[in-house]
Amino acid sequence: MAAEPSAPEAAATATATVIDGRAVGAQVRERVRAGVEALRSEHGIEPGLATILVGEDPASELYVRRKREACAEAGIRSFHEPLDAATRASELTALIDRLNADPAVHGILLQLPLPAGLDAGAMTARIAPAKDVDGLHPVNAGLLAHGSPEAIVPCTPAGVMELLRAAGAELAGARAVVIGRSTLVGRPLASLLLGADATVTHCHSRTRDLAAVCREAEVVVAAAGVPRLVSADMVAAGATVIDVGTNRTDEGLLGDVDFDAVSRVAGAISPVPGGVGPMTIAMLLENTLRAARRTAEATVAA
Ligand code: NAD
Question: Is the pTM of this model over 0.85?
């Protein structure tokens, strides 16, 4: 009979629970589908999402197609607005203004990046905050930073929070580290974790001794865009690790976390692919439903 492993040996061979983003994403989509059905039957409102794609970037075309397919599955109408790569700023703002005024459109998604010559910040700010289902408008970013429940939250960080909930992570009082400070992921995520009462340390490319900071954390979220940045020696035993990174390399698609090594130390870990990725579109559907629900609430209140 084999001898029982010593405690350190057992820890070294332990395997983390893998947080299944495809399964959690499917639950969110089902929740949205039921919500869409209820909104239609109770208020006669059919949620609608407008997608604007400027130019012919194949990756952007694929993302927009997937978003529209997900809308169709959830019962959300989508209105596709493809524009030529040579579109002028005045033409794009005119389209955004028209969609802002269209009552059948509850959400507007401007696929980024835009071709050179179009200012993504200015165009995003042109979208009515109530229809900004990507949560990138300065008004929504400000509401989130203020801890307001009225904020429309960017889809990827909202998806990370959903994964943490699904993993049963105890956030209140927990030490959480966010790696990355982009307006798309890192900053809103730090606000969300703070709103969930975590003690948040926000790291970035200038952070000194990232490894030591991460080792203190019970929750680590990596959104740096650096393949295998987070190694096993940077993670405390039993920590929950969420990997936002999607890095296309010669070895294939890699996250920001060294999955094989870290999964022997962490308590729970999200994989790449199959972790955060499937959550992003699911949360876009949820944001669109929420924007449409607000229309119903406004009608009832009026
Ligand atoms: P970004 O380039 O805008 O920001 C990266 C951040 O990481 C910066 O704040 C930078 O300071 C920090 N950083 C870079 N190198 C670092 C290092 N060595 N140590 C510590 N911090 C470092 O990127 P982003 O848009 O926030 O995206 C981050 C990653 O998440 C990318 O891989 C991106 O592809 C991925 N992403 C995935 C999804 C998804 O749906 N799964 C969505 C958005 C972004």
Answer: yes
